[in-house]
Amino acid sequence: MKIKVPASTSNLGPGFDTLGLALDRYLELSVEVVDTKNSPEIIVKGNGVEHIAADKTNLVYQGMVAVAKHAGTELPSLRLSLNNGIPSCGGLGGSGAAISGGVFLANEILDVKLSREEMLNIAVGLEGHPDNVSAALMGGLTINCFDNGSVRCRSVKIAAPLSVVACSPRFQVLTKEARKILPKEVLMKDAVRNIENVASLVASLIQGDVDALRYATSDTLHEQYRASLIPGFDDVKKAALDAGALSFNISGAGPTVFCFAVSNEKEIGSAMVKAFAAHGREASCEMMRVENEGARAITK
Prior knowledge:
4-stranded antiparallel beta sheet; 36% helix; Ribosomal Protein S5, domain 2; 7-stranded mixed beta sheet; Alpha-Beta Plaits; single chain; alpha+beta; 10 helices
């Protein structure tokens, strides 16, 4: 069988570890049950092949193993093929798509009949946080919270004609380093401001009030610290906003940054690339749209 799983951005500014948004770049996976002693046989194509494991540590395979363990069974011998269309520079949900794709695949081939929310909780057990894996599984805007250790997720379909312009400088920021830099405590006023902004952000996306994105994407919990890991951050932000972007935020843990836009997408992307270049960093841009469907089978 063959499936496709969308890329995603997360946080969207103030929604730290809470909000995810699926995007129209995809990880395509196919799996066959084979008679081989060298299982899993893993074939990797597309973006980031040099960084994607082709052994049992592969994240897709790990997602499959987690479902088999949950079901109290074992995986058969497999040939697993990955064609990665998700930019691999960091911040666009590549690992979340891989884990979620593996969970989805195993649920299908083992006929476990898990719900999407049950699959999500298995995926979160591997990823550690729900934002990207929820977007990959559910599609659209995902809003996540924990209830007695279980993730509860709501997926909202976005009808507004929003573009997401992502700009990826060619260096890596490790997620563990991006988390280590964050303070363990924050001021009450900063926490309250983020609550205000994330509520306004969700409402604006649901209602299609794109102008509200100019202020509702502001963050006080993580971006001011993570910006120090991205050379030229302030100049790239200014360039994007001057070119007509509605917003400017770090995508996930970075180093990818992204803007919401309804026009001037090429100009915004070019402005960000030039601003990174002025700081000695080569970068590339992707102009994407929201993907309202999550992981799904293409053929069986």
